[in-house]
Amino acid sequence: MAKKTLTTSKGNSRARQQTSTDNRVDLTRQSALYGGILGEIVGAVLGTATGALTKSLTGTLMGFTAGIMLGALAGLLIGVIVSQTAGTHGGASIGAYTGMGSGAILGIATGLIIPDSLRLSANTLQAPVLNALISSRFETVVLFSFLICILGMTVGVWVSGKNFIPERILRS
């Protein structure tokens, strides 16, 4: 049930009704920004760790860059999704499960759009650890799904934990 309040704007003498959905929009914007920042940080860590498997500076820097870009995008989207599902009453568990599920779906989509030329170029590095990327598209999709699922869970827990307001505080 939306709580209605009456406010007047300073530049205009007309009164307008403001509902609690305005608070929901502010929460979504705040969660998207916070999720994007957290996604960049976690994506940088995961991308650097994955890139370090190549044992070369170029691979590590490419992993770092890809981690920041994918992390920011995934963190922003997961922040919005978590703010809509968990809201202010969901808690960290709902955020974690929402982040894991949406992160896995985003990872599947990301793994599917990786071009074959980029995927097969991992073979030139002669790193046996990267054989998961060059074996087939399925392994690539599973790897990206797993990595973005981890990112989604981390972002989901932090965003929903930050937005959580216990009921005892609301009652008083």
What is this entry, summarized?
The protein is mainly α and 172 residues long. The protein has 7 helices and 2 strands.
Structure description:
- The chain is elongated and about 65 Å long.
- Strands 1-2 form a two-stranded antiparallel ribbon.
- Strand 1 and strand 2 form a beta hairpin.
- By secondary structure, the protein is mainly alpha-helical.
- Mean pLDDT is 82; it is low at 13-18.
- The chain has 7 helices and 2 strands.
- Helix 1 (21-51) crosses helix 6 and helix 3 (91-113) packs antiparallel against helix 6 (137-163).
- It has helices at residues 21-51, 57-85, 91-113, 116-120, 131-135, 137-163, 167-171; strands at residues 5-8, 15-18.
Spatial shape: elongated
Overall pLDDT score: 82
The number of distinct β-strands equals: 2
Radius of gyration: 20 Å
Helical residues, percent: over 70%
Oligomer: single chain
Q: Could you give the order of strands across the largest sheet? A: 1-2
Strand content: under 5%
What would you call the structural class? mainly alpha
Q: What's the total helix number?
A: 7
Unreliable segments (pLDDT under 50, ≥5 consecutive)? 13-18
Q: Quick one: biggest sheet?
A: 2 strands, antiparallel
What is the distance, rounded to the nearest whole angstrom, between the alpha carbons of the first and last residues? 19 Å
Order of SSEs: EEHHHHHHH
